[in-house]
Write a structure and sequence with these properties.
Length: 456
């Protein structure tokens, strides 16, 4: 069953049931009120008859009946029986007419139970125990509330008509409401037909209302972006790995075959050394691809407090062991010290990898064998800048800087696969931070890491 039909049926059934129950409750309350109000009138009528009988004993029985008929509170089809203290009949509102009533009512009436109310079909019965002028009387009155039942019938018909009208309104409203609720979902379903994971930047249109459909669309587009990125990475990885590895492996095999027949020991050692370097580069490429895949598919990352200045110094120390002639100059802003604003919540392994990649980038693209690293606080954010002098990346290439396997013109003649900055970009995204690149006319390259959440 479609959502629209479920909304229509469930909402209609619930609403109509509530309205029906409310109308039944109203009818029951008014029916009970009619009975109580009419039985009170019968009680007053019975007591009035007893009072008249006690005060006017010299009046004949017929006169008393005539007074009862002229009473303004005359009851329809009224039958009144009065009894003395011995429960003997002393008055009947209808001469020579037998009035049937349950002897149990007369038997149960007493000082402890001065009032009994009952009914036989539509006829109400009231029994009264009453003391007047120090004499005990028992009265039983039966009557039919014609006016009350006519009002109750009118109420019942009115409620039936209202129930039909309201039910029709509820059904129409439910139909329109179900269409309105499901329209964005159907629009989303139609849009999904035109979205392909193979095409980049294809997303669902964002609805104007800030409702659950809006949130669902945002989350779906985020999912599509991750899927498209993963698929793009897979597509590019397969293409570039097959392209990038084919030639190095072919050269590697060719060089190994050539080395097999090499007789000169010096050339043999030089060839083996060159092969070792090329093999090491291939291993680094595969490792970089694996790390990017791990970052993209991270299920859960453990975060902890990390001092970024210590991470930078550790990375610099490791780089100096590999590149002893390269100089790193680490500086702190005047408003920052080693104990203030240098800690972030992060994953130690990933952040260490990001720092190492940027340090290696400085080494590979520096023209004067030195780089500056600045740590500063700005508007509650930790800023780490890596600056080296060398050929700039052109403005046309900057938008592609953090894409898979992209290498700018300044990387010509240098070994690498264009994966380091991609990995750093993804690591920063996982830490809710960002990486930016800036260049100057003085051939200065500046990579900036920005961390939003600082822990003092």
């Amino acid at each position: 069953m479609k959502i629209r039909q479920r909304i229509l049926i469930n909402f209609s059934i619930l609403s109509i049931s509530v309205i029906g129950f409310a109308f039944l409750l109203i009818f029951a309350v008014f029916s009970n009120y009619r009975r109580e109000e009419y039985q009170q009138r019968m009680k007053d009528h019975t007591i009035s008859t007893i009072t008249n009988l006690s005060e006017a004993k010299q009046i004949s029985h017929d006169v008393l009946q005539s007074m009862t008929k002229l009473n303004i509170n005359k009851l329809f089809k009224e039958r009144t029986l009065l009894f003395n203290a011995k429960k003997e009949l002393i008055y009947s509102s209808i001469n020579d007419t037998k009035v049937e009533f349950s002897s149990e009512i007369l038997r149960n009436l007493s000082k402890e139970i001065p009032l009994l109310e009952s009914h036989e079909g539509d006829t109400d019965i009231v029994g009264v125990y009453f003391i007047f002028n120090k004499e005990i009387y028992y009265g039983i009155t039966k009557a039919y509330d014609a006016f009350g039942f006519s009002k109750l019938a009118f109420l019942k018909n009115t409620l039936f008509v209202l129930f039909g009208i309201i039910s029709a309104i509820i059904l129409i409203t439910s139909f329109l409401l179900s269409n309105q609720i499901t329209q964005p979902i159907e629009a989303m379903a139609r849009s999904l037909k035109n979205i392909s994971i193979h095409e980049e930047n294809q997303f669902l249109p964002i609805p104007k209302g800030r409702d659950e459909i809006y949130v669902l669309t945002i989350r779906f587009n985020e999912l599509m972006k991750r899927l498209q990125d993963s698929f793009s990475f897979q597509k590019h990885a397969v293409h570039h790995i097959s392209h990038e590895l084919k030639t190095p492996i072919a050269i590697l095999v060719s060089n190994l075959e050539r080395l097999e027949s090499e007789k000169d020991q010096l050339k043999l050692l030089a060839g083996i050394k060159a092969q070792k370097i090329d093999t090491h580069l291939l291993g680094e490429m595969v490792n970089a691809l694996l790390e990017i895949a791990k970052v993209e598919t991270h299920p859960k990352l453990s975060f902890q407090q990390i001092r970024m200045d210590e991470l930078v110094f550790d990375g610099v120390s490791e780089m100096k062991k590999i590149y002893p002639k390269f100089k790193f100059d680490v500086q702190f802003d005047k408003d920052i010290d080693s104990s203030n604003g240098l800690s972030v919540e992060g994953n130690l392994r990933l952040l260490k990898m990001a720092i190492q990649n940027l340090l290696i980038n400085c080494v590979n693209y520096s023209s004067n064998h030195r780089a500056e690293i600045y740590l500063k606080n700005l508007s509650g954010k930790l800023i780490i800048q890596f600056i080296n002098h060398g050929k700039n990346i052109s403005n046309s290439e900057i938008p592609f800087l953090f894409q898979h396997f992209f290498r700018g013109e300044n990387s010509q003649g240098k070994r690498g696969f264009g994966l380091g900055l991609v990995l750093v970009h993804k690591i920063m995204a996982l830490h809710l931070g960002e990486i930016k690149y800036e260049s100057s006319e003085f051939e200065e390259n500046k990579f900036t890491l920005i961390f939003d959440k600082i822990k003092n």
